[in-house]
Records
---
Amino acid sequence: MKLSDIKTPAYVIDERKLRENLEILKEVQDRSGAKILLAQKAYSVYQTYPLIADYLAGATASGLFEAKLAHEEMRSKNDPTKKIENHVFEPAFESDEMSELCDICDHIVFNSINQLETHRSIWESAAEAGKVSVGLRINPEYSTQDDHEIYDPCSAGSRLGIRLSEMPEELPGGVEGIHFHTLCEQGFEPLEETFRAVEEKFAPYLAQIKWINLGGGHHITREGYNIGGLISLVKYIRERYAADVYLEPGEAIALDAGYLVTTIMDIVNTERMPVLILDTSAACHMPDVLEMPYRPPLKDSEEPGELEYTYRLSSRTCLAGDIIGDYSFMNQKHIGDRLVFEDMAIYSMVKNNTFNGMPLPDIDIMHDNGTVDVLKRFGYENFKERL
């Protein structure tokens, strides 16, 4: 990647790494019979959807707008006739959205019996005509996460999914599938544990379904993930319950497949350490850094104190806490130097904002030969139109 040619700040999608992730996921599909969907809430660079559609079964949405995006843009580049599935789940749907969702989606998943019945007058006719398949999201009440309760759908008081105590004796009329989503950046073992809990608690319903969606949070493309275990579990479910099996990872599709390139604008000396003022921002351009919180990986750097020069990386916003983290480098840094944050394709572009009137970074794509093209450039009008 020719850093000097890039206007910063810029997200850069690594096309080669994206394809490598997709090849792994396609292998899982082919060997297990699962259908894998892109969870757009993590990654929505629709200019790459034709590539993704070459490998995967489709996409899943968290609401009408994402569902429309997949409906419009998710087309296979190599096989325009390929059937691409479009799924949607939302804790609550607006009544005026339901007709359009029934027209553009293959699966609609409801978060409660009340939501199912509230919209029955609209979805039922579409289901009877074979246009849409309806499912319910369940809450296994089986948590596999120790930290970050904000990302745990099985935490106490969670609003996500129907608990066993709230389920009727039989699935309501028209319901063909069960959905659960409980993981966050996890391996195979937590999925297996969760499914065994679902199998134990919800066994009568599994005998009634045509499909089951195991949700997202699966780091399938991460080194060391137990792909063989996942394939065996999917095969077991398909054979035991004669049901289609869906997986909807978001991060696994674009894991390590993007960068955020930034320029050092100024250096401020403090009593602790020098602070690099960057043209990017944690609060605006990578909000998970503050929400999780976590320290994003940075190319050619180490933990503070491990290399000769240690700096704090911050932003040009007025937020005192807009701090990305502390890093050390072999070489002293200067105004105008470029830095490259890694693993920046996921939960960055989909969550960024224009606080302080900060410009949104460009969205670029790096091809196999290292050349970079601009997919999208933002300006003042994008800031103004949001207000």
---
Amino acid sequence: MKKIKLDILGLSSSVDSQTGSFALVLKENKGDRRLPIIIGMFEAQSIAMEIEKIIPNRPMTHDLFKSFLKKVNFVVNEILITDLKDGVFFSKIIISDSKQKFSIDARPSDAIAIAIRYKASIFVSDKVLDDAGITFDETEVDKKVSDDSKIKTLKDFSVKELNKKLSESLAEENYEFAARVRDEIKKRN
């Protein structure tokens, strides 16, 4: 099995905000594919807090796991999203000490929350990325606006147009583009 390195691209709330789910979007490190994974609110909060370097008053579960591994002299080397069955992703946390290396089954959301605490690499099997990855082409996002083929970028839209694009993107579950639109709106406020 070939493994492909991923980076965290973004985290956004799901279109159906009543379910409390979030979309975690991972990006192929050297490519155009994205891997969206729907995760729970607790895991999204844990990931966001670590990314933003927010330290809670009491350790969260993923921080507890890290503290435990430290006490027994283990480190997280990497995580690997291994499989996709019936729309459910499976992953493994690869850990080691000075003598041994082994893997632990985990939900990808938990594995990623732990990986970022160790600055460990996130990988996906090529089969999973082939099956669930979405090809993303920057040039397809921006629209042609005239016959002379001038490309219109987000900077060319009014705030009203951007808000409309944000709503459309969320309705289409295009979270990555929605995040870009949201960021452009924030820049202007």
---
Amino acid sequence: MNNIKLIEVPSEIGAGTRGASLGIDAIKIAGLDFMSNFFVHFPSERIESENNLLFEPIQSPYAKRIHGVLNMYERISKSICDCMKNNFFPVVLSGDHSNAGGTIAGIKMAKPKSKLGVIWIDAHADLHTPYTTPSGNMHGMPIATAIAEDNIECKVHEVDEKTVKIWNQLKTIGKINQKVLPEDVVFISLRDFEKEEKHLIEKHGIKVIPTSEVRRNGAENVSRKVLRYLSDCTDIYVSFDVDSLDSSISRGTGTPVGNGLREREAEDLISKFMQNRKVCCFEITEVNPTLDKENLMAEIAFNILQRSVNILMMN
């Protein structure tokens, strides 16, 4: 049986829209509304955030609040590393997706010899860098930090020295450069990305499984294909951004996009992944109840969380 620990990261400094830090409590409230005692069952740890930076002026326009993101990477990676070294399975609930860079670093710090695969269920590729970003929001960059990619070929911004220095620290956190090889990343339901990101997907041949393939072939076939593709990996991290869901249901997130997964498709897919022994960490991110009606997004996230953890408990 897996010993599960909930790691709560209420940080939203990487997002462009405010409110994602409230997502964790919204998911807990959804659990209460469903009369579930889920959150009483597991040990949990809440990581201190840097959300006070939201009230301060932006210093790095192409990597907003990057110094705060570096602090978060350090805190999260330490927490994840300690958790795994103590034989817990970390289930991470985080505000915005920039936090995932810290999660990935923590897994590698706990298992430096591992070949880590990443299943990124997200409408977005999150492959931007300070040199290419259209928004400056750090939640568009965690995969780039994990694969240690600057994408200088597509450079559109002159980035100041201080920002470059912190960006390089993000890529080498835990004294490990390139936590994940690009060929060990799989995007699922990716559908909203810029030409600079497309360049990297093509350059590295990163695997993309569109929504249409999930719908056509079903969760069972798609999960089998993904796990076969990552068969060389010793460990797998699954990151679920709720904006992978279709915008008809994913109103409660900062960047909703049409043509996404249905709730049941996401739930079935994630459940299939969770049955695999190589999966060592699961993260749910970007629930923003301030944008939602009747806490719907958090309820969907809670259902997926509960079913996933039940499967982990049975493994």
---
Amino acid sequence: MPRSPETGIRRGAFESVAELKRAIMEYLENHNAAPKPFIWTKSAGEILEKVARAKQALEPQH
């Protein structure tokens, strides 16, 4: 079943691994044809602080 580039592989149903591989490669080719830079919305310091808080929350409290 053909998929639009906008749909990509999200929520896809694939009948075989080969079909999934083709869909992934098609998605990557379409996505890479018009790349857009990722623009960070937080500073590195803010991101690292959040990671540290998450790590502390997930560590066992013995």
